[in-house]
């Protein structure tokens, strides 16, 4: 899938169904894998409430994205530390 298929601006977001059609992908799993590949190189925004994909053209939107992922990172690291602590207890 080509990144150029994903428009800039939330107001121009493209639905999953439309993006799959443009990319000529029929399988949901293949589509998800293609989006994951693109997300390794590009920031792709998505809206789980109303659906759709887009690339940001907004400073504020990117700042919110950064905050969201920083929080997720913190939360994931906290869970990893708890798991290590529990593992240490099991090994005693």
Question: Can you put this structure into words, describing what you see?
Answer:
With 92 residues, this protein is mostly helical. Helices cover 57% and strands 4% of the residues. It has 3 helices and 2 strands, in the order ααββα. The termini are far apart.
Number of strands: 2
Instruction: Enumerate the spans where pLDDT stays under 50 for 5 or more consecutive residues.
Output: none
So what's the overall shape?
A: elongated
Strand % is under 5%
What's the gyration radius in Å?
18 Å
* Element order: H for helix, E for strand: HHEEH
Summed up, the helix count is 3
What can be said about the biggest beta sheet? 2 strands, antiparallel
Helicity range: 55-70%
- Class inferred from helices and paired strands: mainly alpha
Strand arrangement in the largest pleated sheet = 1-2
Cα end-to-end separation: 50 Å
Whole-number average pLDDT?
94
